[in-house]
Amino acid sequence: MKHILRPPYIPDDGTVGKKLNELGVTTSDLPPFLFKEVAFKCGSVIWLWLKFCQWFLRIPFYLILRPRKEPLGELDAQEILRVYDKEAAWYDIKHHLTTYWWDTVWRKHAAEFVIDVINGSNRMFKVLDVCSGTGLTAWYISNKVSRAGLSNRVMIMGIDLCKRMLTGAKSRIFPAGAQIEFSCSDATNLVDGNGQVDPDEAVRFDHGTFDAATIMCGIGGIKDSIKAFEQILRVLKEGGQLFVSDMHCPIPGYVDDRSWSKRAFPMMRFAQATWYWSTVPIALGILWGWKDPTMDFWQLPFITYTDEHEQNWGFSVVRRNFQIEPWWLRLPLSPVCEIVVRKEHISSEEAERRRDILSLI
Fold it and tell me: Would you identify the CATH topology of the domain 2-360?
C-alpha cells in the first residue's frame, strides 16, 4: 500500500525538468529528491506504528515546551511578531531543547565561518547577523573573535524584526572590547532602524556594506526568503560571503539503517515521517511560526541583484553540507543543512538565466 507524506518540492508536469535541463541545471544544482513525492510502500501495521511513534514524541513536546494553541496563520511578519513576543523570554532554552543543544554547535560553525572570512587580514571587517534574535549567534561570533584577538577589527551588526527579542540581545554580556550593535529591521528591507521598522524612519544599509553575513536558524521564519536573500546580496561587498544554517528535510541515503533500531523500523522512514508529521507542522509551524526551509538552500545560489550602475551580482556556492544529528534518545531527528555562498559579479546573460531558473522552482 502506498502512503504519501508530501508532494514534490518542485512539481513537474514534464515541462519543468525539460526547461531546467535547457538552462543547464545539473543534479548538483537541484538534486532529484526535490522533484519526487515522499511516499511509503508499506502495510497498515508499519504505517500505524509510525503514527504511534509520532503521537509518543508529541507528548513531551506539548508538556514541556507548551506551544501556542491557536492554528497556523499566514506565517507573515505579523504572526512572527506575535510568536516571538510571547517566546522571547524562553527562546534560548526552548531552542536548546528542540535541537538537543545542537544549535550551540551550529552557532560555533557560524563563528568559525567569520574567522575563515577574515583569514588573517588586517583591515576592518563588518559582519551582519540576520534574524539575530536574542543575540546568541552574535555572542558566539564575538567570543570567537575575542579569543582570536580580533575584537578591534570586527564590527557585528545584529538585526531582527522583534524588539522584545532584541531586548534580550542588548542585555547579553559580551566580551570586553566587542564592537556590536543591534537594530530592529526587516530582513526583506534591510535598514538600520535604530529600533524602528518603518522604512520612512530608517536608514537603508548601503550597497556593499558588509564583508560577511550569517543567518542561523532564522530563514524559516521569513516568508519571502528570496527577497531577504536579494537584500543580503545587495549589502554584501564583492567577494563577501553568506553563511546559512537551518533545518532541512531528511535526504535518503544520509541515515544509517544498520542502526540498532532497524528491527523496530527503518530509520529513514522514521526520520521522514517525523519531519512531515511533527517537525514542520508542530515544532516549526506552531511553536516557532516557521515554514519548511528546505527549498531556501537550493534557491539561494540562483539569487541575483542589479545595482544602480546596471551591474549584475549573484552567488557562487563555496560549500553546502547536510547532516542528521542525533536527537533525544539518539534518534536521527535533527536534519540540518549549512551553505556558504560568495558574492560575485555575473554577466547579464547569466543573471537572466538564473532568474529564469528561479521562476521555475
Answer: Rossmann fold (3.40.50)
